[in-house]
Amino acid sequence: MVTNDQRRRQLAREKFERQQKRRAEARRKARQRAVIAGAAAAVVAATLVGLVVGGVFDSGKKDNAADPAADPTASASPKASPAPAMAIDQKAKYTFALKTSAGEVKVEMDAAKTPETVNSFKALADKGFFDNTKCHRLTTSGIYVLQCGDPEGTGMGGPGYTIADENLDALGKPNEQGQVVYPAGTVAMANTGRPHSGGSQFFLVYKDSPLAPSYTPFGKIDAGGMKALEEVAKAGTADGGQDGAPKTPVTIEKGTVTRN
């Protein structure tokens, strides 16, 4: 016969076991959330590499590019060409027009906010630098961009010089993670991960993307260009991953910069 005291001890033991199970389940879920959060952070970190180019370039020659197996922000430090002399109206607005295999993309640029960047793109476009070049990288998680402007199509090429960062405070104050939102439709400079290391590579943002305010935002994509960009993004990457060559190949057939 079970006494009242024994019954009370049994009920207390069962209550304790239920509490332990609930606590164990809570700990398991907390660990799972931590793993998911860590994975998400890893995706963002990986896609950030897509905005990093291979160093200070010597007229796009591969033998002077940084070793891609080394630190992706490292510079090979070859002799560099000087940036083009200022030759634009720094109070004017310009259009960077890209005729691509995926459709027309027009980027509105304000020279008053990013004079060195606009001047560089005008000088390069006038030489046909962007003609018949590939947009080599698409990211589909963490950040959402299509990267272009490399004459080699590898992520390691550039014009042979670098330009200063500009307009970095345009997107507001960074959050606690040191990030700001680069809104959909923004065009910004890729760089080597170091200040003032932009060349010719740039990225087109097709969906709001959180990033450190380290990439010069210098243009806005028109509605037609956004539609073309979104179609490329919808198709994803060639290998189905979150970061790689776009499944829909994008070639800049002609790139021009004109004053509005």
Automatic annotation (TrEMBL):
InterPro entries xref list: Cyclophilin-like_dom_sf, Cyclophilin-type_PPIase_dom, Cyclophilin_A-like
Known EC number: 5.2.1.8
Signal peptide coordinates: none
Enzyme type, top EC level: isomerase
Pfam family, one: Pro_isomerase
Annotated segments matching region Disordered: 1-26, 62-84, 236-260
Reported function: PPIases accelerate the folding of proteins. It catalyzes the cis-trans isomerization of proline imidic peptide bonds in oligopeptides.
Protein name from the UniProt record: Peptidylprolyl isomerase
Organism: Streptomyces toxytricini (Actinomyces toxytricini)
